Amino acid sequence: MTHDVIVALAVLGVVGQVLGVALLLVGALALADVRGPLRTVLSAVEGYELWLAFVVAAIATGGSLFFSEIAHFVPCELCWYQRICMYPLSIVALLAALFDDPRAARYLLPLPVAGVGVSVYHLLVENGVVGQSATCLISAPGGCGVKWINEFGYITIPTLALTAFALVSAFLLLAAFEPRATVMNHER
Prior knowledge:
Elements: H1 2-31, H2 36-45, H3 49-70, H4 77-98, H5 104-108, H6 110-126, H7 134-139, H8 157-177, H9 179-187
Helix pairs in contact: 1-2, 1-8, 3-4, 3-8, 4-6, 6-8
């Protein structure tokens, strides 16, 4: 069962990465004044951005808890920092979605942005590009460089975290800066 859940989470990670690349492409086109794809994305997700951020954060939180509580992978220091950034997103994004408050997205954005930074650093440690600190080595067996999973040759726990943080950031940006958010701010 554990391996099946790990593969399912890895598949979700790959799907999330494809979606993330597509959103990056749409953003790059918008910066180049090709706004058609952005309008299409905005109309497709309008009103659901916070729900999408919540779903991604909830799956990431659930996956994290699965790894430590069911698979018995010991979270390292960097994993804990990533959890500090992700867990509150699950709760607050749900509340923001329930109350349909896109303004909350602007206050939530620092969490996934910080999480992206920690995840990138964790990937650098995990792949030996950056050395581990002494606290990494004592925080978990083998430290922060241990690859508890390695699906499809590259999906590791920090890769999944980076994917989730990037997607949550994208959905929060869509919620924070869409026309509906601007209109609601002027109505209040």
